[in-house]
Amino acid sequence: MPTAAIEALFARYGPRYRAYVTFTAILGVVAMLLNATMINVAIPVIMGAFGVGQDVVHWVSTGYIAAMTVSMLLNDWFVRSFGMRNTYIGAMSVFTVGAVMGGLSPNIDMIITARVMQGMGAGLVQPLSMVLMYQIFPVRQRGRAMGIFGVGVIVAPTLGPTLGGVLLDAFNWHYVFFMSAPVAVFGAMLATLFMPWRDAEGPKPSFDWTGFVLLVLFVSCLLIGLSSGQREGWQAPIIAVYFSIVALSFIAFLWWELQTPEPILQLRLFVNREFAAAALVRMALGAGLYGTTYLIPLFVQTIQSYSPTRAGLLMVPAGLTMMALMPIGGRMADRFPRYLLILGGLCAFALSSMLMTQAHTDTPFWTFAVWLLIGRLGLAFVIPTINVTALRSLSGDLLSQGSGAINFVRNLGGALGVNLIAVTLERRSAVFADAFAGLQTPDNIITFDLFNRLSELLAQLGWPSELHPVAALYLLGNSLYAQANMMAFRDVFLFIGLVYFAAMLPTLLLRERKAVARPDIPATRTSGPTAKEPA
Questions:
Q1: What number of other Cβ atoms are within 10 A of residue 397's Cβ?
Q2: DSSP letters along 84-99, please?
Q3: DSSP 463
Q4: 230: which of 68, 137, 317, 516 is 20 to 30 A away, CA to CA?
Q5: CA triplet 460, 461, 462: central angle to 5 degrees?
Q6: HSE (CB half, 13 Å, CA atoms) of 185?
Q7: With the CA atoms of 460, 463, 467 and 473 taken in that order, what torsion angle do they form, in degrees rounded to the nearest 10?
Q8: 371 neighbors 356 (Cβ within 8 angstroms)
Q9: Which of 454, 507, 501, 506 shows the shortest CA–CA distance to 476?
Q10: What per-residue confidence (pLDDT) applies to 354?
Q11: Nearest 5°: phi and psi at 294?
């Protein structure tokens, strides 16, 4: 229901207030999601600018997603304590500071810190905007409201890589950060006019700070431990410390949430078979969607030497197709068995990933675009269907907690997905590089022939003869590393495909059970309203 503040704003601005506040809410969400995906095309440039590898640079993406995941659980308390207007303005301010800090960063550590700040702001704005739109539209138009919100959510990731590529090619990576700051400032200015304030007076509500701290410990140590294992060595004492903290904080979090009267995450949701199965599928979706959005621009820029703009344009056909088909997928979820739609969508995404295992340096642009399109076509049917399936089995008093939990699980899957993809890519590149290097012996005819050809080419270019062996070996080493890197990307695409095939198993638990008629119980009347149904 609309709050007193919303009713007062309607009285002030008239019927057009709905359009004003909708634009303000969507502007914040689009700014956050644009920034999330624009950065992905800048990853190779940032790697070169600061001389870091996959084990470090992935935190530019992972830090954002992880911070957004955790801060989503703060949204309800902030709104009840300070109101939507102050929460929105505060989140946009934090996001703006992070954007400016990122653009001015002299090192990779400051960039990662800036991205964490931006993620904290984004985690507060997204659920706030969804709840606000739910309140300002009447019941008969809430489907339309969620459709408008959904289009904004899809448009931003679709256009983000392309816009980021244009900024990189026209200017440099600093402007990818700076670009989002004016949008956030403009959104905060609009919020002072159109966002509702806090109605309630009196003390602020209590918050489960213990559960929040334990959750932050669990998520941060898990991600840091995974990303540091390849660099420090999986047997290193510090890695054992990280994973010990992960285990202890997870157990403590479960214990605390089960006995505290106001948990930050309602664990009894996961006792529900359908909700638990849907949460597992949603985690896999988050891992695959965020993971491929991170991985594919990196592949085409490092392996196929795409420009940032071309890498961004590669994502556009699949994104536009997903945006067009998602409303159709939502309508089909009301007419067909939901678990079959989810199974079909997961199969399409898994097939897309398997096709990408054939990618190489000469894969045509449109071939790759079609592979991407197949996967996004599947997601267009899975995403609206899994959301409906997850919440339909919950009672009314658990809907808010269930919505928050599903979004939390999705983003946690995204953070883990990007992290594991970066670790796997680094690890498999090292394995293939060692294997290829071991084959380069004087008895290897192919290597000997390539070495001679490189020496001849250097001679034709006018290089001094004494530099031919060193330069030829250097070029040969680069060629081997590029081949090892390409093979590692193929393995990661295979890994993503297998994750989606595995996600089909919990999907089978989402199959609707048919009611069985009993002869000793008379049939109930279904033509009119019942005690549980409003007339």
A1: 9
A2: HHHHHHHHHHHHHHHH
A3: -
A4: 68
A5: 90
A6: 10
A7: -50
A8: yes
A9: 454
A10: 92
A11: -80, -40
Token pair for residue 299? 């592949």
Name every residue whose Cβ is closer than 8 Å to that of residue 21 and which is 6 or more positions away in sequence: 9, 132, 136, 194, 195
**Using CA atoms, how far apart are residues 72 and 32, in angstroms rounded to an integer?**
13
Chain segment 376-395, per-residue pLDDT in tens: 888 878 877 776 777 677 76
Angular region, 14: left φ>0, alpha ψ -120 to 50, beta rest: left
Residue 516 is predicted with a pLDDT of 43
**DSSP reduced 3-state for 313:** helix
Q: Of 117, 128, 122, which is closest to residue 83 (Cα–Cα)?
A: 128
- Could you identify the residue written with the tokens 């138009």? 141
Neighbour-count burial for 232-255, b at 16+ CB within 10 Å, e otherwise: eeeeeeebeebeebbeebbebbee
Angle, CA 33 vertex, CA 265 and CA 425 arms, to 5°: 85
Distance in angstroms (rounded) separating the CA atoms of residues 449 and 111: 45
Amino acid of residue 345:
G
* Chain segment 169-205, per-residue pLDDT in tens: 888 888 888 888 888 889 889 999 888 887 766 667 7
- Please give the single-letter amino acid code of residue 140: R
Is 52 in a helix, a strand, or coil? coil
Helical H segments across 260-398, by residue range: 273-302, 308-314, 316-332, 338-356, 365-392
| Number of Cβ atoms within 10 Å of the Cβ of 434 | 10
